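Postdoc handover notes: sequence design on the structure in folder B. Input tokens:
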């Protein structure tokens, strides 16, 4: 008697045959796709401006048929190639990351550092000038008197050698921190200004983070205008 396993081994060694039954093709063996090895991803290009993203897409540096530009956040934009279904991936070619802004909100700073931070990391506006004037003239020590009703804060500020004058700064204040790429208009946000003994000041965010959404839409609008003649998709 012939061993069953011997017969099965012979069948495995035979070629693939296809049988048609009632118009449907059937194979005598299961078939598996033989995929070509995936080519390695290119080295990611790290940029820090939107101008770099625009130059890359316009020049088609990696010969892609169509790029996808994804605005990940207010400070991050990525460029991908076409979707490769056989490997279930999109290749990421470029990433622009704005990393210059490092102002610490919700933290008290000494008077001089607070003013320097405002001058170096905020767009100059009328309200910024008012905040700088207010915080730059507060007299340190026991002579400082603060009144805070939750909406506005008043302190005694020095206007002469002897006399003191009361200045009131309404809260919240509208300011424009340099928080996103320099190519777009910096969004304006509301902040609450507070002081503590020792002439230390802090800005507390009062906009609920809506400025992030404004940044993302502003970046998208800017890139759509700059890349309107390029074959790419911009998503946010």
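Designed sequence:
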């Amino acid at each position: 008697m012939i061993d069953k396993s011997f017969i099965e081994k012979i069948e495995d060694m035979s070629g693939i045959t296809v049988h048609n039954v009632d118009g449907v093709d059937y194979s005598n063996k299961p078939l598996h796709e033989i995929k070509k090895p995936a080519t390695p991803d290119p080295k990611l290009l790290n940029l820090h401006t939107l101008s770099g993203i625009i130059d890359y897409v316009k020049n088609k540096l990696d010969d892609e048929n169509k790029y996808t530009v994804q605005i990940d956040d207010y400070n991050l934009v990525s460029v991908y190639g076409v979707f490769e279904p056989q490997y279930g991936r999109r290749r990421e070619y470029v990433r622009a990351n704005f990393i210059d802004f490092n102002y610490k909100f919700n933290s008290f700073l000494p008077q001089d550092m607070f003013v320097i931070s405002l001058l170096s990391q905020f767009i100059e506006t009328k309200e910024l000038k008012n905040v700088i004037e207010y915080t730059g003239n507060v007299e340190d020590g026991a002579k400082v008197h603060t009144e805070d009703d939750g909406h506005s804060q008043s302190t005694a500020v020095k206007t002469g050698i002897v006399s003191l004058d009361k200045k009131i700064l309404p809260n919240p204040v509208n300011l424009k921190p340099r928080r996103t790429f320099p190519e777009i208009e910096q969004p304006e946000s509301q902040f609450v200004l507070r002081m503590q003994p020792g002439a230390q000041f802090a800005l507390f965010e009062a906009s609920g983070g809506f400025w992030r959404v404004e940044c993302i839409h502003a970046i998208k609008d800017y890139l759509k205008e700059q890349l309107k003649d390029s074959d790419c998709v911009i998503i946010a």
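Context for whoever picks this up: The chain is about 25% helix and 30% strand. Don't rerun without checking with the PI first.
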